[in-house]
Amino acid sequence: MKLGTRLEKIEPYSPSEYNGMIRLDANESCFDLPKEIKAEIADKIKSVEFNRYPDPYASELCDKFAAYFNIDPENVVAANGSDEILSILFGAVLDYKSTVLLASPDFSMYRFYADLYGQNTVIYNKPIMTQSDCSDLFLKAKNVDLTLFSNPCNPTSEGIDAKDILNALSETDGIIVADEAYMDFWGESIIDKIYTNKNLIVLKTCSKAFGLAAARVGFAVADKKIIEMFKKAKSPYNVSSLDQAAASVVLSHPEYLKKRTAQIISARNKLYNGLKPLLTSEMRMSEPKANFVCIHTARAVHIYEKLRKYNIAVRCPEKNILRISAGTENETETLLTTFGKVVKECDRQ
Ligand code: PMP
């Protein structure tokens, strides 16, 4: 029996175990949905015919999503999280053995899917604390089949200016994928530029600002020809009726979504401003654009482990990076007190 050869060198994503911890490690919204919206979802779910397969094209959901972002539904495909979009992109839409340009650090699942499906990767190592300076990344984009990055970036929380991406799009025939999972927190989306750039794919998710990580709903937005490829390759019933119902309801409340997003941004600013005076001279933290902050420090692993002992989960995606998501007022207060204590403890060791 010969199985699993392709998996031998694959580094799987390692989600945390929590056991009652404060969860500041997954960049989810720190606010659950309000009761009234949950009740509306429950009502909608009551009318789901559980014996029937879901709508394969999630038409109502895509219509609501398109209306929210003011685009045409024919330019949208929905999936089981934007993770599934990545899987379809690397596994089916891209030709075999394409060359893919990724940045480092960036969202780890890009590399995961590229390796899993045997694509060739070129890795651009980002200089730290440069905010939007990605000119070197885009120079390399001219020679590859596809360039993919998160904007704002997970884990650095820095952003690439729209004009630089548009410039890069005009200088290459390759595909450029802008993963805007956290863009609601920054407001520099290029989603409307799919009409003038046939080589642009924009990824979106309901898991962050929209507070629906439990539902697993993500989208790709692009020229119709590319969207048709995703539709051809995806499994027929990839978004469950329950998830379609939940996300359709949430997307019908644009005013609520805008208010919530503003609350998360304010929670993120409290975290950022609270952490600033606690940093030691070797630590660096750039101004965050997403719903989390990123601290560059040689003590990242140490602080990460100590915080876990105090029941706080943060993420340490690389040995010198700490990523901390915005929390509720109480969560942030606990984090800040504990962070200060842990840094002092580290100083003594
Ligand atoms: N893109 C980025 C940049 C992310 O950080 C994440 C989740 N952490 C995803 C995509 C995946 O999101 P989803 O929940 O839609 O699968």
For CATH, the homologous superfamily of the largest domain is named as Type I PLP-dependent aspartate aminotransferase-like (Major domain)
Distance between the termini: 51 Å
Please tell me the total number of domains.
Answer: 2
Structural class: alpha/beta
Binned strand content: 15-25%
Q: What series of H and E elements makes up the topology?
A: EHHEHEHEHEHEEEHHHEEHEEEH
The CATH architecture category of the largest domain equals 3-Layer(aba) Sandwich
- Give the overall shape, derived from the CA principal axes: globular
Oligomer: single chain
Number of discrete helical segments: 11
Proportion of helical residues: 25-40%
Query: If you compute it from the alpha carbons, what radius of gyration comes out, rounded to the nearest whole angstrom?
Result: 20 Å
Top-tier CATH class of the largest domain: Alpha Beta
- Strand element count: 13
Walkthrough of the structure:
- There is one protein chain.
- The model has no long low-confidence stretch (mean pLDDT 95).
- Helix content is 39%, strand content 16%.
- It starts with 21 loop residues before the first strand and ends with a helix.
- It contains eleven helices and 13 strands.
- It has two domains: 22-30 and 255-348, Aspartate Aminotransferase, domain 1, CATH 3.90.1150.10; 47-252, Type I PLP-dependent aspartate aminotransferase-like (Major domain) (Aspartate Aminotransferase, domain 2), CATH 3.40.640.
- The strands form three sheets. It has a seven-stranded mixed beta sheet, with helices on both faces. Strands 9-10-13-12 form a four-stranded antiparallel beta sheet. Strands 1-11 form a two-stranded parallel sheet.
- The protein is of the alpha/beta class and 349 residues long.
- It has helices at residues 35-46, 59-69, 81-93, 108-116, 135-141, 162-171, 224-233, 241-251, 254-275, 300-309, 329-348; strands at residues 22-23, 76-79, 99-104, 120-125, 146-150, 175-179, 200-205, 218-222, 284-285, 292-296, 312-313, 315-318, 321-325.
- The structure holds 4'-deoxy-4'-aminopyridoxal-5'-phosphate.
- 4'-deoxy-4'-aminopyridoxal-5'-phosphate binds next to helix 3.
